[in-house]
Amino acid sequence: MSPAPLIIIVLSSLLTCSLLGASATALHDHGDASTDFQALRCLKLHLSTSGFLPSWKIDGSLQNFCTWSGVTCSKRHTSRVVALDLESLYLDGQMPPCIANLTLLTRIHLPNNQLWGPIPTELGQLNTLRYLNLSSNNLSGMIPSTPSSCSQLRVIDLASNSFSGEIPPNLSQCSNIQQLKLDHNRLSGGIPEGLGILRNLSVLHHAGNTLTGNIPLSLGTSSALHSVNLTDNSLTGPIPSLLANSSSLQFLVLTKNQLGGEIPSALFNSTSLKILSLGVNNFIGSIPAVFLNFDDSPLQHIVLASNNLAGAIPSTLGNFSSLRWLLLSQNNFQGSIPASIGKLRNLQLLDLSYNF
């Protein structure tokens, strides 16, 4: 082979490598200050039709948008937006897909505005997003299925909107979720079983929907589980054993469902549970007469009204020294009211009506 063809081959190879490298760089390119400015400009044009966000000067050339109210820029990447905090600013309109052009966003906090319409699917492209709060708006449509790149997400709060359809099962792919709040929407179907195995789950709030089926058997797996509120749905079946035996659970609110079976005694023996609210269900059986840990119990509210409970009201309830609410009305309890209940110094609300 002559030298000339060899040089051509080498140069061709170098050029190919260079192009591949440029292509790889393009695939990982997260934009620049100009694209962030244009994305913010797009947001204001779509969401601030009433003239709010006065500090957002979008006319003319590139502005120092890092000084705009509600905008936080990165300390590592010059003039790159990492957070939007725009709570209660009367923003109205549909959230535009251009928000996904803020490719380094880690936080979107837009609660208590007047946003409407669906969540743009492009939001799923933000693989650095850790916090999403769009609560108390007028958003509707189905909650978008999450991409596999959602592992950075820690908080999803979509409460108090008008979302419909089912909870996406692949939310369980967001393996680091700590808080999932979908309260007060129009969601139907069951609670995905996969949500129960989220190892970092701390808060699960789905109250005020029309959810059906059983509470996931795996719920309670997370050692960080702190608060479960599934009030005002149409859930059936028993309280799962894992949930009842959770050593971290402080708030269990399951009022106004169609849950049944016996109330697990583990709930009364918990050393972490503060609020136990199971009213307006179909629970049967009796309240356990023997408690193992009442000296250490932080229980403040016991709400068991409007069930099918029977038997005697145990005198040992008077040993829960932190108890403030004891609501046992509209059951089938019999016998006398234990004198020990009168010794509960912190008791503020007692309702034993429609029994005996």
UniProtKB/TrEMBL annotation:
**Residues of the signal peptide:** 1-24
Q: Is Lipid biosynthesis included in the keywords of this UniProt record? A: no
Q: Where is the Leucine-rich repeat-containing N-terminal plant-type domain?
A: 34-74
Localisation: Membrane
Q: Which cellular component terms (GO) are annotated to the entry?
A: membrane
A Pfam family of the record is LRR_8
Species of the source: Triticum turgidum subsp. durum (Durum wheat)
Q: Does the keyword Transport apply?
A: no
Q: Which InterPro entries match?
A: Leu-rich_rpt, LRR_dom_sf, LRR_N_plant-typ
Membrane protein topology class: Single-pass membrane protein
Q: Which domain of life is it from?
A: Eukaryota
What keywords sit in the KW lines?
A: Glycoprotein, Leucine-rich repeat, Membrane, Repeat, Signal, Transmembrane, Transmembrane helix
The record's principal subcellular location, in a coarse class, is membrane
Q: Name the chain's protein.
A: Leucine-rich repeat-containing N-terminal plant-type domain-containing protein
